[in-house]
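User: Before I run my own analysis I want an independent prediction to cross-check against. Here's the chain; please return only the structure tokens and, at the end, one sentence I can use as a sanity check.
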Amino acid sequence: MTEAPAPYAVHVDQVHKRFQDNHVLKGISLHARPGEVLSIIGASGSGKSTLLRCINHLVVPDQGEIHIGHEVLRSRHNRRGEAITADPKLLEKVRARLGMVFQNFNLWSHRSVIENVMEGPVHVKGIASQQARQYAHELLTKVGLEHKADAYPNELSGGQQQRVAIARALAMDPEVLLFDEPTSALDPEMVGEVLRVIRALAQEGRTMILVTHEMRFARDVSNQVFFMHNGVIEENGAPERLFTQPQSVRLQQFLSPCV
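Assistant: Structure tokens:
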């Protein structure tokens, strides 16, 4: 009997995270249905990036669960009291279904652009090199960088490097894309080229969770927006409502410079 589709692509259930005495995440819950775009906004230090990294256990939660479709990532504590992934084999399986794009690109500096994009399919998924190269060319065309296939990261602008990073994430055919402030390390003139690529992915119906400080972009592309403050979700809702009629004082203060 075929398993019924999971109602949510991602479901974060009561996640807590502490770093020493700093309680960074205080029982966060949210979910994204397949094809939805969620944006997470908030001031620096509110816990946004920590939450995103908890989803793929780059940061392991102290409490709570992460559901990716029907799979559930749980934590346990080792003898030193450190939170670790309860099932490393399951984590490896789940991570293959999640694409992550970081603030600072994280490209292999000693590999060409096309080699960066091919790396995951060849070494993680075992796809033949020729097939992976052809697919990598298609993805570089998608992000407007097919002419840079043989260049190296240090020969690219920041915006171009981030577009390569997006192509690299797409090369694994992820069910969910996670973006951790993908434009924060870019010069202003380069922000638009990256946002155009992300917008096109949203229009394709890809499931995405985006930590961003680009308020107008979040308003335009998101199905839901979550405002984090001091480790909790202070307010969330549809972008039309949240940006025009914020209920919490904290969100009103946060948005006031944008109005």
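Sanity check: The longest strand covers residues 22-32.
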